[in-house]
Amino acid sequence: MPLDGDWASIVDPYFNGLFSFHHEVKANGWFLNRKAKPDDTFPTEYDFSKAPVLKVPADWNTQRESLLYYEGPVWYQRDFTYQPREHTRIFLHIGAANYRSWFWVNGQKICEHEGGYTSFNCEVTSAIHAGNNFVVAAVDNARHEEDVPTLQTDWWNYGGLTRSVSLIEVPEAFIDQYDVHLSRKESNVIEGWVHVEGGKAGDKVLIEIPELRSAGSGVLEADGRAQVSLVASKLERWTPQSPKLYTVKISAGADSIEDLIGFRTIETRGTKILLNGQPIFLRGVAIHAEAPYRLGRANTDKDAEILLGWAKELGCNFVRLAHYPHDETMLRAADRKGLLVWSEIPVYWALQFDNSKVLAKAQQQLDEEIGTSRNHAAIILWSMANETPNTEARTRFITTLAERARTLDPTRLITAALLVRAEGQTKIIDDPLGTALDVIGFNEYIGWYEQQPNGADTTQWRIEYQKPLIVSEFGGGAKAGLHGGNNERWTEEYQAAIYSHQFEMLNRIPQLRGMSPWVLMDFRSPNRPLEGIQDGFNRKGLISDQGQKKKAFFVLQKAYLENSVGTPESIPQGRSQAKK
Ligand code: GCB
User: What is the pTM of this model?
Assistant: First the structure.
């Protein structure tokens, strides 16, 4: 049952609703008394019936001018009616709440959560009752040094219930996780596991793909998990050219579930990336979860259609969803459109890498990211980090994450966007973190943060890893509609020149297997104040926030459609057969 729509809201910068005057936590908040005694006048100040509304799902920053820069707690409340059925369990599902959140149903505390970009569920079975109910949430987007991400980022800290909220009713024993994928070892075998929360050892699980007339089953072990497999002899593999999805039905006792899943394999061999056993070059672009035209957090099917539609128009087969897990609508759209995905957690720049609490936070976000998006065929890469400083603590921290990701999901590749160092005109990729990765990502800004666009012509590369390489960022800023010479910063011509010079340089790196230039669309960033040009936006977009395509968009599009970027061995059909 969706709980999206209007929620009453109270902005509470000092968090007076949760903390007493001596800063003790009020266990159940001040609203415990709400509706308990109809004539009770306490609390008189936090009165939701008089409070203005905020839309959910949405960030608060773009809904009210006074909240554009707000970083702190906001209270949300809404009423709902419900008729719980017997022998069920009920959960509040929160698509995302940035960054910390607390939830109560009918005054009973049900959960707290940390991390702004992953979904989670809070059990409400004992708090909910037949008839009228109310849910209260507090969401706080204040930044802290020991958080993930930390104080510094280059994107807007959109706060609030930024993704959909709903109630989910399930049987007492229910399917809470499953992983269904194509075997790497045996062709045409689909395998995986199903976890049944509350299930008993020995209970049966069924899996079926009606279109293939194929079915299999498994039996729950003591940990509630059943291994499942089925033979699918006429299986059509999911590819960017033909992103075939199958309806998969899973049932266990009283519970059953349907999902749309594609089947493909992804692996590396030497310096190659193989999709379904075939070498592939990843023609990509990086994307922030900034909503086109309307701005704010991207969280609708329409946002996903527009953003990924532009990526397809560019000629992409790949997108880097930076710098945190994106809304599920993006992953579903990527599955449908045949766009391979790099998915990332916000281990961004300089976290407190020597703090075990910070590691636990990053691990939790990684678990939630993999746990909720592991059945998307589109995702091929789990990225552990972006541009982190080369220290021993950092390498240990991210290596621990990489090992965890491999254990949680051995079917995908592990990557990270590394920094590059230089000796004269030679750029060197030798960050020790590379050892922990299957695919090396690196960011460089030749022509923007250093040198002119033609600086790329004389740059040499030394790569210390015999692994596939993706240039996960390059680019430069341009204001849409601003024209001038190739050497005039902020013009569309300057940005386009960066791209042209980059292609020639990148084609000289034999082990390059993909690229995701920075970035598809201009996005809000508080670090970008330049008046009249940036006005609060990072302008490295190929498209403006209002949908105007800049010159560089067409330069990249031409290169992708003509297959003139990438190494010959990763373009199986060869450059000559490129289609327009
Ligand atoms: C980077 C970061 C990205 C920034 C970008 C820029 O290296 O990874 O988050 O937005 O540079 O525009 O400077």
Answer: 0.97
